[in-house]
C-alpha cells in the first residue's frame, strides 16, 4: 500500500471520528432551534470551568412572599437572580381547563421574563397520576401504576397524548423579545429509581419506563414539533457504579443531559461528601464519554442550619474531582413555612458563606451570563 493511500485512509478515519464526536456534542433534536443549540453549546463550554447556580421557583415566590415583580430571595441577598430558575409543569393536568390555562400563562410569563433577562429555565414535572388519585406521590391503596396505562398500547395512552399536546402548545407559545422560541431544559420523571413517585422503579418495569421516556421525547419532538427542549435524565442517588446509574437509561439518542438528585449525602441523612462527589463524577464521566451535558439536578439542606454549607459541603463536593457540571439546583423556599427553604434570604444564618459561594469564580449567577443564546458580534 502506498504512503499516499495510507494517508488518505487515516484522513478519512479522522473525518469520521470528528464527525461522530460533533454529533455527540449536540442536542438530540436535529431540528433544535438556533437558540436551543446555542444554549446547549454555551452550557457545555461554561461547564469546563464553571457551574450555573439554580434555585427552584426562585422568582415565583420565596420566604414569606409571592408574586412580586423581578424578585427572588437570591437576588435580595446577592443583587443577582440565580443563573437558572427551576419551574414545574405540575399545573398542566389534573385541574379544570380554566386553572390549566392560568397555570400555563403564569409559567409562560416567568420563563419568557427569565430568558429576556439572560437567564435559563429548567422544568421539572410533578405529574399528578393521570389514571388515579394520589397526586404525583405513590399512595398505597389509592395510586395505580400509571406508566403501564399511558405508554403505547396502554388504556390511557390517548389521554397521555392529549396532556403532551398541551405541553407542546405551551412550548410553541414561549417567545422572547424578538419572537424567537425560548429554549428550556425539560427534566421529566426525575428520581425514578425510588418508589415515592408513581413512575418510580417500584411501580413499573425497566422496559415500561424506557418506553415512557422514548415515547415522550419522540411524540413532543417528532410529532408535535417541539424543538426548544433540552432533555435531562436524573435519577436519585441510589447508585455507586455507572452500570447502576444507567439501569433505566433510555439510550444516548434520547437524552441531552445526565444528572443526579442528591439530598441524602449532602446533610439530610448524613454528611458524605466523598460519596456524593464519587456519584457526581460517575455522572460527569459518562457525560463526557457519551457527548452529553451533566448537572447536579437537585440538592440542598432544608433550613440551611449549617452556616458554612455552601462552601464546605456543596462547593467542596462539586470541586473534589475534575468534573463538568452545567448547573446545580437547590430546592424551593416555601411561602409560609418557617423552615422549608433551601436558599438563604436576608438575615438567614448562612448568608455570609453564601456570599463567598457567590463570589467564587466557579459559580455563575444571572448577572454573570453573557450571550449564552446568541453568537457574539464581531
UniProtKB/TrEMBL annotation:
GO terms for molecular function: hydrolase activity. Residues 34-367 form the GH26 domain. The active site is at residues 191, 298. Residues 1-22 form the signal peptide. Pfam families: Glyco_hydro_26. Its EC number is 3.2.1.78. InterPro entries: GH (IPR017853), GH26_dom (IPR022790), Glyco_hydro_26 (IPR000805), MANB/E (IPR016714). It catalyses: Random hydrolysis of (1->4)-beta-D-mannosidic linkages in mannans, galactomannans and glucomannans. It is found in: Secreted. Its main location: secreted. Keywords: Carbohydrate metabolism, Glycosidase, Hydrolase, Secreted, Signal. The keyword Transit peptide does not apply. It is an enzyme of class 3 (hydrolase). Belongs to the glycosyl hydrolase 26 family. This is Mannan endo-1,4-beta-mannosidase. It comes from Imperialibacter roseus.
Amino acid at each position: 500500500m502506498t504512503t499516499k493511500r495510507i494517508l488518505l485512509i487515516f484522513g478519512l478515519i479522522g473525518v469520521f471520528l470528528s464527525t461522530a464526536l460533533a454529533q455527540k456534542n449536540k442536542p438530540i433534536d436535529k431540528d433544535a432551534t438556533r437558540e436551543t443549540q446555542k444554549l446547549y453549546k454555551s452550557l457545555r463550554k461554561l461547564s469546563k470551568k464553571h457551574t450555573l447556580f439554580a434555585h427552584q421557583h426562585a422568582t415565583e415566590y420565596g420566604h414569606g412572599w409571592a408574586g412580586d415583580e423581578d424578585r427572588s430571595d437570591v437576588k435580595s441577598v446577592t443583587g443577582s437572580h440565580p443563573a437558572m430558575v427551576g419551574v414545574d409543569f405540575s399545573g398542566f393536568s389534573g385541574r379544570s381547563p380554566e386553572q390549566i390555562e392560568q397555570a400555563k400563562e403564569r409559567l409562560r410569563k416567568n420563563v419568557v421574563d427569565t430568558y429576556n433577562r439572560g437567564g435559563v429555565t429548567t422544568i421539572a414535572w410533578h405529574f399528578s397520576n393521570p389514571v388515579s388519585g394520589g397526586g404525583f406521590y405513590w399512595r398505597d391503596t389509592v395510586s395505580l401504576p400509571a406508566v403501564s396505562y399511558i405508554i403505547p398500547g396502554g388504556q390511557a395512552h390517548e389521554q397521555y397524548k392529549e396532556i403532551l399536546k398541551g405541553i407542546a402548545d405551551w412550548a410553541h407559545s414561549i417567545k422572547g423579545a424578538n419572537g424567537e422560541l425560548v429554549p428550556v431544559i425539560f427534566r421529566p420523571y426525575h428520581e425514578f429509581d425510588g418508589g415515592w413517585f408513581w413512575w418510580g422503579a417500584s411501580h413499573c418495569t425497566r422496559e415500561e419506563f424506557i418506553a415512557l421516556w422514548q415515547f415522550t421525547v419522540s411524540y413532543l419532538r417528532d410529532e408535535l414539533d417541539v424543538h426548544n427542549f433540552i432533555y435531562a435524565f436524573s435519577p436519585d442517588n441510589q447508585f455507586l457504579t455507572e452500570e447502576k446509574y444507567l439501569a433505566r437509561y433510555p439510550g444516548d439518542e434520547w437524552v441531552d443531559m445526565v444528572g443526579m438528585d442528591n439530598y441524602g449525602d449532602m446533610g439530610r441523612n448524613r454528611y458524605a461528601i466523598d460519596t456524593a462527589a464519587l456519584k457526581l463524577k460517575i455522572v460527569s464521566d459518562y457525560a463526557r464519554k457519551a457527548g452529553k451535558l451533566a448537572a447536579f439536578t437537585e440538592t440542598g439542606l432544608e433550613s440551611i442550619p449549617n452556616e458554612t454549607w455552601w462552601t464546605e459541603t456543596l462547593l467542596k463536593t462539586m470541586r473534589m474531582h475534575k468534573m463538568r457540571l452545567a448547573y446545580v439546583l437547590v430546592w424551593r423556599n416555601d411561602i409560609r413555612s418557617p423552615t422549608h427553604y433551601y436558599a438563604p434570604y436576608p438575615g438567614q444564618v448562612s448568608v455570609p458563606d453564601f456570599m463567598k459561594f457567590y463570589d467564587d469564580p466557579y459559580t455563575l449567577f444571572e448577572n454573570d451570563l453573557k450571550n449564552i443564546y446568541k453568537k457574539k458580534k464581531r
